Every structure is written in C-alpha cells, then in structure tokens.
Amino acid sequence: MSLSGAMDISSGLSKYDDRSGVDMDINDSIKALEGLSLAEKKSSSSSSSSPFNGSRRRRSRRLKNKSSSASSSNKPTKKRRMGVSKKSKSVKAKDGVRKVGSTLKKRISGLELKLKSPAKRLSNMLGLVCKDPVYCIALGKYNEYLKDYFMDYKELGLVDNNYITTLGGPSANGFVLRLPFMRPGAGFTAYTAIKCSLMNKSDNLFYEYHIGKNFINPLCKRFPCFVETYGLYRFRSEKDWDIMADYSANGGIAGGAKKMPPLQYMLEQLDTMAWEKSCVDSKHICILIQYFNNVLSLKHYFAEYEFPRIKSDMFGLMYQIYFPLQILRRVYTHYDLHRDNVLLYKPFGDAKKYIEMNYHLASGRVVQFPTEYVCKIIDYGRNYFSNAGAKMNTKKIIEKYICPASECEPDCGEEAGYSILQGRTYNPYVDFYDIYPDIPNMSHDLRLIDSLRKMEMGAYNSYEKNVYNDKHNDYKVDDFKNFFDDYCRIIYKHEWGTPPIVKNTKQSADAVNLDVAKKPAVKNVADVREMLETHIDGFVENVTRVKYDGWLKAGVMHIYEDGRDYEFVAVD
Q: Does 348 score more than 60 pLDDT?
C-alpha cells in the first residue's frame, strides 16, 4: 500500500519540527525506520518456518557474512584501524539492518532516542500525520508505523481496560470487544478488535487466525476489502473466559459490567503451530483483528429499510467484492459470504465526502466510480485457500494437522469447530448445502449477490423462489426481486449454497431489454465480474454520479489487476 497522502510523511514531520522544536533529523529517523521495516519484511518473508512459507535461511546468511568478513584483506588501512574493512563494512551494514530490525522494540527505541520526551513526542508526530488511526489503518496510510509503535499489538499491557467496549451483542458463534492500545505517557491511541468463541462447536478461531495471518494479510496490500489479522490468544482459565463473556453480554462498563482485570493476566499467546491444541477447549481461543468505526453491515441497509442510501452505489459495492474474488477464484472461496459478513466502512462518517475508486484492469481499461463506502469482507473461519508457493491448503491442514491429532478425536475435530471446515475430507458422504471448504467453489460466493433483495433472506417459499434453473422468473411479490434481475439471471441452488459451475456465460449489454428467460446467466464469480463490467459505466454515469454531485472528493484509490499494491491518495 502506498503511503501517499495529502502531505507525505516528510513534509508532515517538518511542520511538526517547526512547532515543537524536535531535532530536524527526525526525518532521517523516519526514513531509517521505513528502511528497516522494508528490510525486515524481505528478511522475514524468506526466513519464516511456517508451513505457509519457505524454510529458514538466517543461520546460513550469518555464516556467509562471517566468512566474507574473515576473508577480507589483512593489510592495515585507515578504515581497518577503525575496525571496519571496506568489504566487511558492506556486509556488516546489511547484517546490521537485520539485527537492528530484528525486534519491534529495537525499531521503536532507535527512533525514540532521537526525540525529547520520546513517547509523548512520537505520539504527537503520529497524531499530526495520522489524526484518525482507524482511518490510517483502514486505508493503508502509515499502517506499518502504527503497528511498529504499538509493537504489532502483541503487548496486551498497553490496553487501557477503562475503555474496552463491546461491539454488537454476542452472536451464535461468539462475541467481539474493542481494545484501545495506548503507550504509557502518550496521548495517541489505536484500536483493535478481539474476537472470541462462545462455545467449543463455534467455527475454530485457530484456523481463522492462520488463514487470516498467512493468506489474507498479504492480500490486504492488494485489495482494500480484506481485514487484517494480528494475533492468536487463549484464555488462561474458564474463569477468565466467564469474566470476558459476562462483560460482553452486559454491554461493558457502560452497561454496568465490572471492570475486567488486565488482559495480559487473562490471555496468553498461543503457539501458532500447535494445531492439536486448537481442539482442546476451543472456545477459549481468541484472535486479534483490525477494527473499524463508522461501519454497518450490508444487511443493515436491507433489514432497516435504508436501501435508498446505497441504491445508487450498488454496482460499485459489488465490484469492490467480486473484482478480487474473480482474481482469486482458483485459490480462494469464502464459503460464508452473506450480508452480515460484508461491512460498509465510511471513512468520512456522515460528511459529504467520497473516494474516487480506480480499478486498473489487465486490458488497460480503468473502471471508475465514486463512493462513500469501502467494503470489508469479514469472518474467515470457513474459507478455502490454497497457497501454491508454500504447498499448503485447507484440505492439507485437515489431513496433516487436525485428523491425525488425538486431541481432535473423535471425528476429526467435529466437536471443536471443524465440522463444517472439514467438508468431505473426513466423511465423503456429507451433504451440507454444497459448503465444502476443503475444495474451491467459484460459484458458492454468489450467495451475497443472490441475496440482494429488499426483504430478509430466509423468507423464500415454493412459489417465490422456485427450482434451480428457473427461479429467476418474475416474482409474484415485488419485494423479492433481486437488484440485478434487470441485467442477468443469477443461478443459485438454494439460499445457503450451490455446486460449482465453472463454464462462463457471455454477458450482454442488451440484457436490460431482454425477457427474463433470455437474460445472460450468472453462474460463478467470473460471470459476476463480467456482468458488472458490462453495465457499470452506464450505471455510474446515470445514477451514481448524480448522488455524489456537489460532494467533496476526499481521496483517490488505485487498485491493480496486475498484482501491485493498492494506493490511496488523500486530496486536500
């Protein structure tokens, strides 16, 4: 993600220097910090021992560097007398980057040493260039600096327990709390969310952590619709789980709940490769994830009869979702893509401001539309993924780590939140609405676009939603008409799932003038993207831009099909 903005970080810090009298070399410190972050990323990407990445090479590099240093000339020189030969200096410089950038604490302390009253002034600096941490993280601005400053949100002692709040009420699967992170002596606060299970049979959060951390997180740099995963934790005891569950059920301190003990005494970090432990008291597992304010689910805009607020944005909203899903269709299926699992984030709240979205296609075409919403796909506990480079996928995790573990008996973790995820890997005769996350299904994620009706899902009956191929005839109840029925026929077997149909259907620009039976069929995510791209320019010109006429353009976002990181540029 680009760090572009209304002002770049150097100019922002220069203004801060003038106001606060901080030494001007803070700019050099920030550049050094950025360099260390990039160097560490390159180092960590090639040295991780996770099954999702390659083997560790760090030791061999140290030996190589040591050998190179030892082989340098013995002839005394001015540089040699200083303890550094010309050749070894280069090696040590590279090795020094790795050493200095080896821990988050060292990266932060190296910057703070150049500041007076370091915690306070660094927080002031972040406050200047990133006045809203949620906005910065959500749109990729200074995200890495914020994570560095708060130690990747791993130190739970930085959480201010006085301001932990609940996010919604407990659902059938679990509960979520907002955690405020604050460095001692500083006034700058960043927020995360902690997601915990309600019962052992809830979708297993250990798996959700892994797909989030190792598969989704890298995608967050390419596509703004995904949510970042930070950490994996377990409650230290049943009593600790009870305390937090009660706190959530009672609405936090604002609802009359007692203040919780410090989180570092209630939660412990889990060994992320101890898959067998994921089946032991699985309801005690929690994950730390990205937080958003000014956000409502897509379902809210249907259930609360607020559809007119998003009606003009429908093509843009669906394009934010199905553009990446089409690109990832052979290696990723969400398998639980319904309206509750798509959030509409409003970076500018209720202000009449919008972002101009620019999707750069491989063909050279640029799909453009204004929007006040950034879509966020959440809940990865039933996702299928395949990481070819690491030779890892959902099916292999079930076969290699879950089923062989004695802790996951009986039935391959069925009682520990793996009943749906295992698909047909353990039991080939399972029949569950074509939800088989052990294999990809490029048709299943049509569930979201198939549900875009004015009334609630689940109200279908035999005459309102007929069988498979002809269910998209004219409905007898107008409220059950899908928003996209004028453009296509969405082929979906039932409201929870459908079998894969790989063959694509050619979309037609004349679909709006055709009878229902003659409209092109949409059978998979590739069909959805093609349908959207066929009609989006006309819809945006005649409908979407009419809504945003007179609004202020506050930012421009560029998303690329060729694999580049997306860029967000704030507009003055």
A: yes
Question: Which of 102-111, 170-179, 344-353, 527-536 is the least confident region?
Answer: 102-111
Nearest to 282 by CA among 230, 208, 346, 391: 208
DSSP, collapsed to helix, strand or coil, labels residue 421 as coil
Compute the average pLDDT of residues 144-149: 81
Q: Which residues contact 252 (CB under 8 A, 6 or more apart)?
A: 164, 165, 166, 177
HSE-CB for 421 with a 13 A CA cutoff: 31
With 0-12 / 13-18 / 19 or more C-beta atoms within 10 angstroms meaning exposed / middle / buried, residue 63 is exposed
Give the N- to C-terminal CA distance of the chain in Å, as an integer: 20
Q: What CA–CA distance (Å, rounded) separates 126 from 155?
A: 19
C-alpha span between 321 and 328 (Å, rounded): 11
HSE at residue 416, side-chain half, CA atoms within 13 A, is 24
Residue 444 to residue 333: CA distance in whole angstroms: 7
- The SS3 of residue 65 is helix
Q: Can you give 452-464 as a three-state secondary structure string?
A: CCCCCCCCCCCCC
Max Cα distance, the chain (Å)? 93
Angle between helix 26-47 and helix 9-20 axes, rounded to 10 deg: 140
pLDDT value of position 345: 95
Among 113-122, 446-455, 547-556, which is the least confidently predicted range? 113-122
Contact 375, 342 (CB under 8 A): yes
Length of the chain: 572
Between helix 118-129 and helix 9-20 the angle, nearest 10°, is 130
Of 172 and 118, the one with more pLDDT: 172
pLDDT, position 88: 44
Task: Please state, rounded to an integer, the average pLDDT across all residues of the chain.
Answer: 79
Is pTM, for the whole model, over 0.85? no
* Residue 165 near residue 177 (C-beta atoms within 8 A): yes
Do residues 35 and 101 make contact, with C-beta atoms less than 8 angstroms apart? no
